[in-house]
Amino acid sequence: MNIFRLLGDLSHLASIFILLHKIRTTKSCAGISFRSQALYVLVYLTRYLDLLWGPWLLYNTVMKLFFIGSSVYVLYLMKFDYKPSHDMGLDNFKVEYLIGGSFVMALLFNLAFTFDEVMWSFSLWLESVAILPQLFLLQRTGEAETITTHYIFALGAYRALYIPNWLYRWVMEGRVEFIAVFAGIIQTIVYADFFYVYFTKVIQGQKFELPA
Amino acid sequence: DELADVHDEL
């Protein structure tokens, strides 16, 4: 555990609390992509298969259970409690291509051609693009509530912070997980435009608005 | 080494 990994994980945790806070305080899931949220459930379920057989490190296990539990809970909130506020008409990104493409990448790139390793690789490729339906929804609406942009930023910062973590581990421990690193870099590139607008507008106290 | 086979990140 190094400072970058810890900050990345804390950023991931923060993103979930921000999202739950947004839904509860505004009593609405407007502006949140159900499709992205569903992809995250798939990401965590396929990545944390090792919860079934261990090893169960306390920190990792608690976090894994939290990420699975909270993502399922958000889906539940969106599907039932706050269903009328869901922008279903605009939230129509074709996730089939993301799932299919990630599966092909997982078949091509994996540490071993076993079910759990292919699923682990699949989860990383899928996570790298899972925010696309959310960013697409943002593009369609052209603006976003500030709290929603904080959520997206914290979620993106998690993987961005993992990049210096991987550099640190490569130098200090001689350890590199190439699939995670490549997928993490792709994920950060996917977020690049969003980060740019976030830093140039939201941080300066302006509303998140995309050019028409 | 064996540890390297375990995915220890989130």
Automatic annotation (TrEMBL), chain A:
<dbReference type="Pfam" id="PF00810">
    <property type="entry name" value="ER_lumen_recept"/>
</dbReference>
<feature type="transmembrane region" description="Helical">
    <location>
        <begin position="179"/>
        <end position="199"/>
    </location>
</feature>
<dbReference type="InterPro" id="IPR000133">
    <property type="entry name" value="ER_ret_rcpt"/>
</dbReference>
<dbReference type="GO" id="GO:0046923">
    <property type="term" value="F:ER retention sequence binding"/>
</dbReference>
<protein>
    <recommendedName>
        <fullName>ER lumen protein-retaining receptor</fullName>
    </recommendedName>
</protein>
<keyword id="KW-0675">Receptor</keyword>
<keyword id="KW-0256">Endoplasmic reticulum</keyword>
<keyword id="KW-0813">Transport</keyword>
<keyword id="KW-0472">Membrane</keyword>
<dbReference type="GO" id="GO:0015031">
    <property type="term" value="P:protein transport"/>
</dbReference>
<feature type="transmembrane region" description="Helical">
    <location>
        <begin position="119"/>
        <end position="138"/>
    </location>
</feature>
<feature type="transmembrane region" description="Helical">
    <location>
        <begin position="150"/>
        <end position="167"/>
    </location>
</feature>
<feature type="transmembrane region" description="Helical">
    <location>
        <begin position="56"/>
        <end position="76"/>
    </location>
</feature>
<keyword id="KW-0931">ER-Golgi transport</keyword>
<dbReference type="GO" id="GO:0005789">
    <property type="term" value="C:endoplasmic reticulum membrane"/>
</dbReference>
<dbReference type="GO" id="GO:0016192">
    <property type="term" value="P:vesicle-mediated transport"/>
</dbReference>
<keyword id="KW-1133">Transmembrane helix</keyword>
<feature type="transmembrane region" description="Helical">
    <location>
        <begin position="97"/>
        <end position="113"/>
    </location>
</feature>
<keyword id="KW-0812">Transmembrane</keyword>
<dbReference type="GO" id="GO:0006621">
    <property type="term" value="P:protein retention in ER lumen"/>
</dbReference>
<comment type="similarity">
    <text>Belongs to the ERD2 family.</text>
</comment>
<keyword id="KW-0653">Protein transport</keyword>
